[in-house]
């Protein structure tokens, strides 16, 4: 079943409002065994009619969001009426619902709001207890342009999401006739390039019958998406893990920081961070995760050398002899954080974010990452991430979190005797 989504609203194209509907609807539809064939975004006004006319001639289902308000630029109803060749009439039940909405809040309904009670003849009104704009469902039999069902839904998520569950999902199930849900696996890999993953896997994955493969790359990670039958996805997953099991940090669409917090909490481990070049980004990413207070005990931003000395006990002599961006300093920062905090693990970073400050020996993008663990020897990794400051900080934080993830996994394996 071909499904098209039409998002309306000039604010979406101006960039003042983030369009999250496509991502959310794609996820919800896949749960029903359905896929989005196309998504279009148009401004308010006449463009809605043209885009909807095109969509209903291609698709089996057209889902329109937005444009159901009372203002002059909200013309989704009028566009649907014109496209389907149906007349708009005032629905008495919808009008009563609108009046009750305003009365409950002690407000007087403006005359312009009556527009929101208009629906194409024969269409079904979709209840909206969370706003003034009722949704509208136009069955395929009413569509004079093509055999396409049309859903007109409100734009605000607080109104759209409840309406989707209560009104849209049952109708989609009926329209689809119980399509078989394909299996989906998404493996998130850390600190490996998309081209490396593609080069290693693509030829083998292409040999698996009925398997759809996709990649999505971000700084410091790649998602490998597998869609198909249970057997095809199982075989594809095994192939991915045969090459990248150590890089795979999640199969549940978790972020790296979510994984670190969850796994450390599961093992009762405490963490401290000591940051220079990242300016607190590692701690910030960790504390974005609910439940981080059970894991993170201390976070230092020791940007100045004096702070490294006074807060973490870094040697002034080593700073003078080796520089702030060096193996000895990263080691002492990590060990100082571990010692002062009393945590089980500590990670420390010191590097050159640029654009200035690099040398032939230590070019811009150089970073030393120290990992200190109670009862274990401290490890220091030298890495090079020659990017802009934002990209550099993101990559260093990503690498640091991945080192922590691997350390927790190693500790868990030793505890279990593996």
Automatic annotation (TrEMBL):
Which segment of the chain is annotated as a signal peptide?
none
Protein's name in the database? CinA-like protein
**Organism annotation:** Haloferula sargassicola
One Pfam family, short name: CinA
Instruction: Report the SUPFAM superfamilies cross-referenced here.
Output: CinA-like, Molybdenum cofactor biosynthesis proteins
Q: Which InterPro entries match?
A: CinA, CinA-like_C, CinA_C, Competence-induced_CinA, MoaB/Mog-like_dom_sf, MoaB/Mog_dom
- Identify its protein family: Belongs to the CinA family.
Q: Which CDD domains match?
A: cinA (cd00885)
Q: Where is the MoaB/Mog domain?
A: 4-175
Report the coiled-coil segments.
none
């Amino acid at each position: 079943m071909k499904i098209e989504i039409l998002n309306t609203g000039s604010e979406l194209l101006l960039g003042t409002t983030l369009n999250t509907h496509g991502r959310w609807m794609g996820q919800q539809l896949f749960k029903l065994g359905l896929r989005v064939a196309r998504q279009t975004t148009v401004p308010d006004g006449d463009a809605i009619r043209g885009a909807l006319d095109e969509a209903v001639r291609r698709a089996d289902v057209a889902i329109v969001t937005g444009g159901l308000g009372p203002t002059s630029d909200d013309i989704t109803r009028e566009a649907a009426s014109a496209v389907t060749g149906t007349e708009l009439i005032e629905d008495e039940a919808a009008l009563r619902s609108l009046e009750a909405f305003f009365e409950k809040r002690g407000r007087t309904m403006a005359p312009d709001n009556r527009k929101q009670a208009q629906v194409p003849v024969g269409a079904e009104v979709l209840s909206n207890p969370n706003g003034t704009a009722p949704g509208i469902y136009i069955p395929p039999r009413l569509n004079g342009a093509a055999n396409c069902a049309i859903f007109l839904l409100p734009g605000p998520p607080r109104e759209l999401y409840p309406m989707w569950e209560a009104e849209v999902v049952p109708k989609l199930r009926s329209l689809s006739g119980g399509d078989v849900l394909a299996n989906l696996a998404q493996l998130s890999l850390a600190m490996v390039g998309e081209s490396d993953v593609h080069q290693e896997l693509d030829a083998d994955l292409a040999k698996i019958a009925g398997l759809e493969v996709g990649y999505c790359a971000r700084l410091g990670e790649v998602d490998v998406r597998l869609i198909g039958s249970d057997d095809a996805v199982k075989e594809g997953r095994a192939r991915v893990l045969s090459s990248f099991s150590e890089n795979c940090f999640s199969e549940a669409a978790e972020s790296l920081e979510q994984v670190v917090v969850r796994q450390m909490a599961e093992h009762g481990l405490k963490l401290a961070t000591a940051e220079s070049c990242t300016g607190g980004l590692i701690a910030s990413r960790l504390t974005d995760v609910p439940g981080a207070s059970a894991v993170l005990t201390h976070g230092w931003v020791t940007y100045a050398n004096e702070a490294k000395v006074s807060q973490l006990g870094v040697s002034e002599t080593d700073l003078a002899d080796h520089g702030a961006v060096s193996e000895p300093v990263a080691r002492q920062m990590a060990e100082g954080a571990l010692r002062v905090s009393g945590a089980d693990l500590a990670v420390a970073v010191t590097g050159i974010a640029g654009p200035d400050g690099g040398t032939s020996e230590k070019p811009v993008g150089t970073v030393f990452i120290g990992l200190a663990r109670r009862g274990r020897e401290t490890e220091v990794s030298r890495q090079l991430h020659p990017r802009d400051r934002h990209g550099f900080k993101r990559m260093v934080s990503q690498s640091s979190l991945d080192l922590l993830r691997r350390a927790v996994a190693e500790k868990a394996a030793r505890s279990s005797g593996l």
